[in-house]
Amino acid sequence: MTKIDTQFPLWEVFIQAKSGTPHKHAGSVHAADKEMALQNARDTYSRRSEGTNIWVVPAEFITASSPEDQGAFFEPSNDKPYRHPTFYIIPDGVKFI
Amino acid sequence: MENPIEFEQIFNAKIAKGEFIEPKDWMPEKYRKTLIRQISQHAHSEIIGMQPEGNFITRAPSLRRKAVLLAKVQDEAGHGLYLYSACETLGITRDELNEQLHTGKAKYSSIFNYPTLTWADMGAIGWLVDGAAIINQVMLQRASFGPYSRAMVRICKEESFHQRQGYEIMCVLAKGTAEQKALAQDALNRWWWPSIMMFGPPDSESKNSADSTRWKIKRETNDELRQKFIDRTVGQADFIGLVLPDKDLKWNEARGHYDYGQIDWAEFNSVIAGNGACNKQRLAHHIKAQEDGLWVRAAANAYARKKAEKEKNMLVA
Hints:
heterodimer, A: alpha+beta, Ubiquitin-like (UB roll), three-stranded antiparallel beta sheet, 18% helix, B: mainly alpha, two-stranded antiparallel ribbon, 13 helices, 2% strand, globular
């Protein structure tokens, strides 16, 4: 067997279950180009009409935040409770607000 | 947070709280290794498992059965791919996984080293082998590694069709001529014991269980899962008038479970060690498929490169 990686680049697959809903990560496939990636994604992740639309993205182009920095990275929103509606005091009996 | 002890504490706390571990999270090296071993073995089983049934696609007795069997074998391919995809998030390549399979470093379920002799074997495999797999996979939906758990959720949604189509084949044969019923009983006789071996060695001898349980990769033991499968299957065999080939099988009121006979673990170990009827054939076929496909993958790569260049030139022009 050859030692070179012959299995094609990795693509991440996102499937929209029905129109109006967001695309959701389904998994990944290997493919030589974008057409093959779409076809492999359909065959692998949508054998039972799981989707109306598929996105494939080369995995190398995805930038992810680092789990180690999770605390610091998301910290700025932790001390801003005034971004939530429950922060505000509304007199009892007021309607439609 | 440079301190590895701190990393380990965070990891353990997540496991304790029942949270999922994601690929980029810190994890003990042994957790990573255990997962690669288990997920790749599972993926290889799906792919090697295509062979015993693929063997009957051209000989299915009707167009309906043929369409069903094709769809089932295609699902096995899909399940293998979900699992490879989950395994690769742990930092191992598909080529390395294949190489481990070919050198024998990675295993696949020993059940697929048994031959499929008659059409009734398609029934027995769906009913028993997929039935046993479902029991295991339902548990693994809650495995602590996120990508593994998500692959399992997807697989479980699809697997029920596999078991039902197999049981349907057995129902039809069992209600057929004496000869057809004998085929069904013969298949059951040959597949029953290997199916209950699928859950692995008894808890007293399972060397991988302790870590897997501690890390919440597995949440039930081999023997618990095996018992669950046997309890479910007895009634299904009775219903269609087939007899499970175990004279010690009987309901134990006190335990609330069926007691069953001694499993031949020497046979199990011998098949794993390479002495099953089909070990060599299964691996040789996989290696051949990989090698025969090499030029196709090379051509696809060359085509993709050429097309990318053409698109770049058009942009410049």
